From TrEMBL:
This is DNA-binding transcriptional regulator, ArsR family. Residues 6-100 form the HTH arsR-type domain. The keyword DNA-binding applies. Keywords: DNA-binding, Transcription, Transcription regulation. The keyword Kinase does not apply. One of its GO terms (molecular function) is DNA binding. It comes from the Bacteria.
Amino acid sequence: MSGPVPSQHEITILAETFRLLGDPTRLRILFHCLDAPKPVGDIAESLDLSQTLVSHHLRLLRGARLVRAERQARQVFYQLSDRHVSDMLKDMASHINEDPAED
């Protein structure tokens, strides 16, 4: 690892973030929002989930600063909060598809 070792407080925040990412539904929501901002209704319909459940997960993801919301007229659109989040998702998806023989 290059750079300073994270503080105990930072480690705790990272652990909580990874705990949130451990939920398959939240990961599906994040991947669905990877390419463009999406309204709650679109996320719910595309993933075959209730809007209430999607809203609950988005609230948690927003609290962890993994997504951000932008109101446009009467709809709220959600997107990944920044490139760090999208890069991490893409990198981990790529990682799990690597051939173990390459190690």
